[in-house]
Write a structure and sequence with these properties.
Layout lengths: L1 E4 L1 H17 L5 H22 L6 E6 L3 H15 L3 E6 L7 H9 L3 E4 L11 E5 L13 H10 L4 E4 L21 E5 L2 E2 H5 L1 H4 L1 E5 L13 E3 L2 H7 L14 E5 L6 H14 L3 E5 L3 H7 L4 E3 L10 E4 L7 H12 L4 E3 L2 H8 L11 E3 L3 H8 L7 H14 L4 E5 L4 E4 L4 E4 L11 H15 L8 H19 L11 H6 L1 H9 L2
Parallel strand pairs: 1-8, 2-3, 2-5, 3-4, 5-6, 6-7, 7-9, 10-19, 11-12, 11-14, 12-13, 14-15, 15-16, 16-17
Antiparallel strand pairs: 1-10, 17-18, 18-19
The structure holds ligand NPW and adenosine-5'-diphosphate.
Adenosine-5'-diphosphate (ADP) binds next to helix 15.
Organism: Dietzia cercidiphylli
Keywords: ATP-binding, Isomerase, Lyase, Metal-binding, Multifunctional enzyme, NAD, NADP, Nucleotide-binding, Potassium
Family: Belongs to the NnrE/AIBP family. Belongs to the NnrD/CARKD family.
Length: 497
């Protein structure tokens, strides 16, 4: 499991190291250690991209703080390895003096932004514009310089964080660096897990930082192997009931496919039993004859968990069904149309005595929250969960997207499947089916609802990867049906990871 920390915790952990270095008369010792890591990973990128390091050209974008200092020291190391290094000073009046001297001493070239920089395109750019202290989008002249280099296809190595990405919220501002590699120091920052697609490959350099624990603002990323180990496997004494029965209320005349996708995903996720309530019984049974269908919520037998919402409608009947399902007092996944119902009739959640898992996409989340604070996703999510819990609703929320977040009011989990192939219509219905089956099974380990939600998101991402890669090569677009069919292979791959 990966852990990513808020800036305040990182600064507090770094402080003793920096103070010890200063007391020993070498105030930049930690910075040089960090910089040699940046140089090492930049050299590795150069080797991958160009076949070597010697003679390659490196541009440093140098901001006004210690992040710029790291870039300058790393430039000095790369000069020593035979690179041509040019530092572009974005604020020549405020630059780390000793690091600049080190670069000059090593034979690096220095220019102020916008004045007489080397006209040829570099092989790599080291982004030392701004790190932990960054706020807001890249400012000029950095914004224009970064845009021109990115437009020319030059790879970026970000020092600590891609500039223009907020370290704590992971907000990716409009003007920002998209890094191929991000080299950070001692421990991950929250943005590395909240904005992982913008960070590229994240390398953590050991600077002697002590191990950091967890606190409420730590973001966690599950290890796929851990999810695989926790996946429910029937034992010798198990039968269909002991593994958990999940009931699915999904589908309508307008959206029959949602019923099929959701119920079939629940069947694929565990070996327990799936009940179905809705107008799509014929379609569901055509694909999955093992599903047990019921004419209404009231007539459905016992289930350990419920899923309600995919394609299920938003009228008064749908709201009444949500109410009736929540009144059964079982863990319940509320997805899709059920979330629209909750947004319109928040009072319906009052019937929830057992844990509920809400699984909105960005639009549904806006509907639920009135669209407040679209930039700080994780902050808005934590506030929404806290609001629900303050109202006595035992809620966990899974916020969908390329980076899916799960928050139970105490812990934020982040899942990034590494590609966006899952962004296809109906794939959310598959996710809620898997989550419901895991909830019914009572998948333990790390939180009664958060962990099944996390595990479902990991399996869903893996299924998208398997489905998109089924032809080998670079991958191909998939539909939700392909993702559904890839679930068994994905679960098997996780269990073998
Ligand atoms: N000390 C050490 O030994 C070690 C330090 N480490 C390194 O130090 C880094 C933190 O350094 P730092 O605290 O000096 O701040 P840093 O992130 O460089 O920002 C500098 C200034 O930039 C400005 N600014 C803000 N936003 C901006 C924007 N959007 N666009 C442009 N400018 C913007 C803002 O000043 P302002 O202009 O607002 O007055 C801000 O104060 C850390 O990330 C790691 O790399 C590691 O080496 C480990 C050892
Ligand atoms: N850019 C993306 N990259 C990867 N996965 C994504 C992306 N956008 C959405 N997803 C995933 O695809 C699924 C879409 O769910 P949803 O929007 O509810 O679709 P639908 O309602 O059509 O079923 C979610 O699991 C979500 O996390």
């Amino acid at each position: 499991m990966l852990r990513a920390h808020p800036v305040e915790a990182i600064r507090a952990a770094e402080r003793p190291l920096i103070e010890a270095a200063a007391a020993a008369g070498d105030p930049d010792a930690v910075m040089r250690r960090a910089a040699s890591g940046v140089a090492h990973h930049t050299a590795a990128l150069l080797r991958r991209r160009t076949g070597g390091v010697y003679g390659r050209s490196v541009m440093l974008l140098v901001g006004s703080g210690d992040n710029g200092g790291d870039a300058l020291y790393s430039g000095a190391v790369l000069r020593g390895r035979g690179c041509r290094v040019e530092a572009v000073l974005l604020d020549p009046e405020r630059v780390h003096g000793r690091a600049l001297q080190a670069l000059r001493g090593a034979g690096g070239r220095v220019a102020a932004a916008g004045t007489g920089t080397d006209s040829s395109t570099p092989d790599v750019v080291i982004d030392g514009v701004v790190g932990l202290a960054g706020s807001g989008p890249l400012r000029e002249p950095a914004a224009a310089t970064v845009a021109a280099l990115a437009g020319a296809g030059v790879p970026f190595v970000a020092v600590d964080l891609p500039s223009g990405v907020d370290a704590d919220t992971g907000t990716v501002h409009e003007a920002h660096v998209r890094a191929d590699v991000t080299v950070t120091f001692g421990a991950l920052r929250r943005a590395h897990l909240l904005a992982s697609p913008t960070c590229g490959r994240v390398e953590v350099v050991d600077i002697g930082l002590a191990d950091m624990g967890s606190e409420p603002l730590t973001v966690l990323r599950p290890d796929p192997a851990e999810v695989g180990r926790a996946w429910p496997v029937p034992g010798p004494d198990d039968d269909k009931y002991t593994q958990g029965v999940v009931a699915v209320r999904a589908g309508s005349a307008r959206f029959p496919g949602a019923a099929v996708l959701c119920a079939s995903a629940a069947v694929a996720a565990t070996s327990g039993m799936v009940r179905y309530v809705g107008s799509g019984s014929t379609d569901v049974l055509a694909g999955r004859p093992e599903v047990v269908c019921h004419p209404s919520v009231a007539e459905a037998g016992t289930a350990q968990a419920w899923v309600v919402g995919p394609g299920a409608g938003t009228g008064t009947e749908a709201v009444a069904d949500i109410d009736a399902i929540l009144a059964r007092g079982r863990p319940t996944v509320l997805d899709a149309d059920a979330l629209t119902c909750v947004a319109g009739h928040p009072v319906v959640l009052r019937s929830a005595s057992a844990p509920v898992l809400l699984t909105p996409h960005a639009g549904e989340f806006d509907r639920l929250t009135g669209g407040r604070d679209r930039t700080d996703r994780s902050g808005a999510l934590r506030r929404y969960v806290a609001d629900l819990r303050d109202r006595g609703i035992p809620a966990t929320v899974l916020l969908k997207g390329r980076v899916t977040l799960v928050d139970d009011g105490e812990t934020t989990w982040s899942i990034d499947p590494g590609s966006s192939w899952a962004a296809t219509a109906g794939s959310g219905d598959v996710l809620s089916g898997v989550a419901g089956a895991l909830l019914a099974n009572g998948l333990g380990c790390g939180g009664e609802v958060a962990w099944p939600a996390v595990a479902a998101a990991v399996a869903h991402g893996e299924a998208a990867r398997v489905a998109a890669g089924r032809t080998g090569g670079a991958g191909a677009p998939i539909g939700a049906g392909d993702l559904l069919r890839a679930l068994p292979s994905a679960i098997s791959a996780l269990r073998g990871a």
